[in-house]
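2024-03-11 09:14:02 DEBUG pipeline.ingest accepted 1 chain
2024-03-11 09:14:02 DEBUG pipeline.ingest length=117
2024-03-11 09:14:03 DEBUG pipeline.predict start
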Amino acid sequence: MLKDRLRELRKNRNISQREAAGALHLSREAYTMYESGQRLPGCDVLAALADYYGVNVDYLLGRCDFPFLPGAPGDGEAELLACYRHLDRRGKQNVLAAAKHEISRQAALAAVQKEPF
């Protein structure tokens, strides 16, 4: 699971293994071995990987499917969460579907903007 999550997170950020390794002060070879599953990182490297990608360690290890670090809501998140909690099951499904659609739209737009002309 770790190797798949590392590859997914790196590719979603459009960075190379060399860039990720450099940011983490690892050799490219070591990073490649983590991403290919040939080697498991120690606790300190695992924590650094989680911090670098902005996810929790449990997500990297496949122990949960929620990647983001918990924290205090901000920038309207508290209001959105309060509204969400008042919705019935179908309303919550609609909100999640709309949010996922918007994320996909923004990702597609970002990908188009990065293409050379």
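2024-03-11 09:14:41 DEBUG pipeline.report The first helix runs from residue 2 to 12.
2024-03-11 09:14:41 DEBUG pipeline.predict end
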